[in-house]
Design brief:
With 309 residues, the protein is an alpha+beta fold. 24% of the residues lie in helices and 29% in strands. Helix 5 links the parallel strand 8 and strand 9.
């Protein structure tokens, strides 16, 4: 990975480079760190079912019109709350790039945590946007009842076959990560969607097995006409990016966003952490909205043509 270092007088180039590398490693260590998670097996039973929630504004008598193109957004919101959450709702309604999406995948979405006012963030967003939602999280982070931070899918269309996918392998301190999957019923066309938040500090071989856990669940839904896997895959190194490209390409996915497009920033560093993968769907337009500064991530978006039922 190339580091872009501003030249300044007084230090040899080797010392400046070493100092920048030290700062970078500290940043990576802190990236996306959450409180240490509890240990749990892949099938954590009733405990896991409590960390899966589905709800939203369901109006079966007035089904939404089927669009000619489906607009999709992915955004790691980094546990926004309060006024930031109100601004996020306004952006997702009105922003020229990410506003008006039919399907939204979010990561780092809190439920019942003190830092975000003990609110249900996914439910608040769904109510503010008039959408349905599905939210899932890994096992609780501590013993005082606080929920973990999870992933969410918001949709203007009905959601079915909602699943919580506990990702393979533990991270630091036994922490676990999850994805949430749901079939979005776009008229008569079922589209399988996953919002993923993968681990940060993990060898690339284990990261690949994280992502493969999502693809294993997708294989159980053969009736879907198309599939979308989006979210924060935490591909912090160049070899992580290449591994993600190999895996999803091999599984028949494409992405409209180039591997070199950065989606996360801090200080002078920019990394490619977030992805939007499509199978059975063709992207018509796409982008990264770098005008949105609510999180350390930028939101991704794409408009895609629907397959025939």
């Amino acid at each position: 990975m190339r580091l872009f270092i501003r030249r300044s007088g007084g230090y040899p180039e080797r010392l400046r480079t070493a100092a920048a590398l030290s700062v970078f490693l500290l940043v990576v260590s802190a990236l996306c760190v959450l409180p240490p998670g509890g240990r749990a097996s892949a099938g954590d039973g009733a405990k896991g079912s409590a960390l899966l929630e589905v709800g939203g504004d369901v109006k079966p008598d007035r089904p939404p019109a089927v669009p000619s193109e489906l607009k999709v957004v992915s955004y790691n919101i980094r546990y926004r709350a309060g006024d930031d959450l109100k601004r996020l709702i306004k952006l997702l309604k009105e922003d020229p790039e990410v506003g008006g999406a039919h399907v939204i995948g979010l990561q780092e979405v809190d439920r019942n945590k003190r830092r975000t006012g003990n609110v249900n963030t996914a439910r608040q967003l769904a109510e503010g946007l008039g959408m349905r939602y599905a939210w899932a999280a890994p096992p609780a982070a501590d013993e005082d009842g606080e929920e973990e931070t999870g992933c969410a899918i918001l949709s203007v269309f009905p959601l079915s076959d909602v699943t919580r996918v506990l990702l393979t392998h533990e991270g630091p301190g036994g922490r676990r990560r999850v994805a949430v999957g749901a079939t979005v019923e776009v008229g008569k066309t079922p589209v399988r969607v996953y919002s993923v938040h993968a681990e940060t500090r993990m060898p690339v071989e284990k990261k690949v097995e994280h992502w493969e856990a999502v693809l294993e669940d997708l294989r159980l839904h053969k009736g879907a006409a198309g599939a979308i896997v989006l979210g924060d895959l935490n591909t912090i190194k160049g070899k992580d990016v290449k591994a993600a490209r190999r895996l999803f390409t091999r599984e028949g996915f494409t992405t409209p966003l180039a591997d070199g497009e950065k989606t996360w920033k801090t200080f002078v560093f920019r990394l490619k952490l977030d992805w939007l993968w499509l199978r059975g769907l063709e992207a018509r337009s796409s982008g990264i909205d770098r005008e949105v500064g609510l999180s350390d991530h930028w939101p991704l978006w794409a408009t895609v043509s629907l397959p025939k039922s």
